[in-house]
Specification:
Blueprint lengths: L3 E7 L16 E8 L12 E10 L10 E9 L5 E3 L3 E5 L2 E2 L4 E5 L4 E8 L6 E11 L5 E4 L6 E7 L3 H24 L8 E5 L6 E5 L5 E5 L7 H5 L4 E5 L7 E5 L5 E5 L2 E4 L9 E6 L5 E6 L1
Length: 292
Amino acid sequence: MRRIISIVVSALVAFALVGCQQKSTGADWGKTKYYRSSLLKKYEPVVMTRTLNFCLNEDAQDLSNNTFEFKVYEKLPSEKMVEAEGIVVYKNGAVCADNILRVKGNEGDVELGIEFTDAVAEGNHLYYLKEVSLGGLDRIEYIKLGEGVIAKKVDIMNPANKWTMIGLIALLILYIIWIVFISRKHLKFANVYITYPGSTDEVRVSCKNCTKIILTNKPCKQNFLHTIFMVRSAIVVNECFTQDVTIHPARKGCIRVSTRLSVDSSPFDMPERKEIFYVYNDDNQKIGIQTM
C-alpha cells in the first residue's frame, strides 16, 4: 500500500522563469532588496512567502496527525546540493526552529516564508524543499516545488545612508561654489579712514581681503560660520555709531552702504582717495569715511 503526500504551490497565477543566463531554472519565489542596518535606519526583514498545499492520498489518511519535517536545500552552480545557509525559514509567519518546516498531514495549506540574512551572497539562489522525516510515508511527490524555486537577493545601500551621502555631496558642492565664486568677492581697497566727530584726525582701519566692514557701537566677533565660509569682516567699534553701518563690495569696484543712519556721499578732490562719504548719527554728528 502506498502512502503518499503531494506538495503543490498554490495561489500563483504564473511562475516567472529566469533567463538563459541562469544555468538551473525554477519558479520565481521572490526578490529581496537587502541593506545593512545603520544608526539612521534599521533593516526591515523581507520574508518571501508562497502557499504550499499538503494533501494526503486516501491510503495515507490514517497518518493525518503525523508530523512531516522538511529542510530547504540549495543547488550550487556546481550542481552540488547543500543545506541552505544564511536564510531564515518561516511557517505561517512564525520562525521555524532549526529552519525545519514541520507540517501535520491534516494542515492543508501552509505559508512557507524565506528571509535572507547578510550571510547570503547577492544573486539568484535555487532552492529545493527536501524531506527530513516522512512521518510514516513511503515517499513524497513534488509538484513545482520539487523542480526548484528561484529566490533573488539584491544588495543595496541603506536608504538613509544613501540620502545622507547625497545631502553631504550637495552641501560640499555648494560650499565649493561659495568658496570659488562668492566668498572671493572682496573689497577692492586695502584701508578705510574714519574721521570721528569733533576731530580732524583720520583713523586708519585695515580691510585687506575683507568681504565687508562693520561699524558699530557694540563689541562683536567673527562667528564660527563666517570662519567656515571664509567671510572675513573688518569690525570697528565706536560709540558714535548709534546704528550699525555695513560696507559691502558692489559691482565694478564700487561699494554699497547699508545703515539706518543718514548717508551723504560727495566727491572728494584727492587723487589718491577713491571714495568719501559722510554718515550722520542719531545725534546728527558727522562721521567721515574714506576708502583708499
